[in-house]
Each structure stands twice: as C-alpha cells, then as structure tokens.
Amino acid sequence: MKTNRLSEKMTAILNSQVTEEAFASQIYLSYASWASGEGYTGIAKFLFRHAEEERNHMTKILEYILNRGAKVSISAIAPPPKNPTDICDCFEKIFNHEVKNTTAIYAVVKKSMEEEDWATWNFMQWFVKEQTEEESFAMGLLDKIKIAGKDKASSNTLYLIDKDLEHTNGELTAAQDVTATKP
Ligand SMILES: [Fe+2]
Ligand SMILES: [Fe+2]
Fold this sequence. Notes:
mainly alpha, Ferritin, elongated, binds fe (ii) ion
C-alpha cells in the first residue's frame, strides 16, 4: 500500500528547500564569524543566533517530508559567498539572500497550488509569513546603517549599532521560538 503523500516533484522541491535553509544557515555562520573577527561581537552574536534559526527552518521542512511518508535526501551545501567588505555590505548581502530565499519559498507554494496539494500549501504558509518578517528585519538593518552614513559610518555609530544588536531578537522572536518539535 502506498503511504507516500507527496508527489515526486513535490518531494524534490521540498528537499531542495531543506538545502536552501541549510545554505542560509551557513551564510549566517560565515558572516557571524567574519563580524566576530572584525570586532563586532554584538552583530556576531545576532548572526550566530540567526544561523540557528535557519537550521530550525531546515529541520521543520525535513520533518514535514518524513511525516508525509516521503524520503528525505540530504545533499551537499554550496560554500558561502566571500566575506562582506564592511557592515553595510554585510547587511545588504543578508537582505539580498533573504529575498532569494523568499523566491525559493514561493516556488514551493506555487508547486503546491499546481498540484492541489493543500497540506503542503498550508504548511508553507508559515514560511511565507516568516520570510515577510525576515525581509522586514533585514530592511531594518539596512535602515540603521543608512542613517549611520552607510560605508562612511563613524566607528562611534558602528559601535552603537553593534551594542544594539547584541540582544536584539526583533521581529525574529517568533521564528526563534520555533523548533522542529515545537512548530
Ligand atoms: Fe529560513
Ligand atoms: Fe532567513
């Protein structure tokens, strides 16, 4: 008896989203390490926390695939892009990556509509909402750095931004509370 509730194509696109989230986590890990090396400990902490969140997203999708009786296939993760040149570049890269990830999420939603796979469509709505929050948070980071003078920001202002982000969960709180076991 066939118990797999996901089509082959849906399984493939969900598995590739697992890799996307793992890739996002690697990017945050790499930028966090870069920021730490540059002395921005607050920003580094914030980015390390976010790397964990992306891991949680990965696990959430992985568990969904398993729960639907389909097969998970773990693939290699591409290396993260090269280090940012400065904080402004770092925040711009983060925003661009979040937008890219949103596009990938939308592709999964679109596929679920085409297949009339309403369970997957419903599952993916959490990610649609999550991406809206993440994009607006990344926009907020860009606003902060814009006000500070972009790449001409003084070390004083950068110090304040760094301090500010150390304990910031911001709009990401909801995502941080989420784990694979506690969606
Ligand atoms: Fe994510
Ligand atoms: Fe994200």
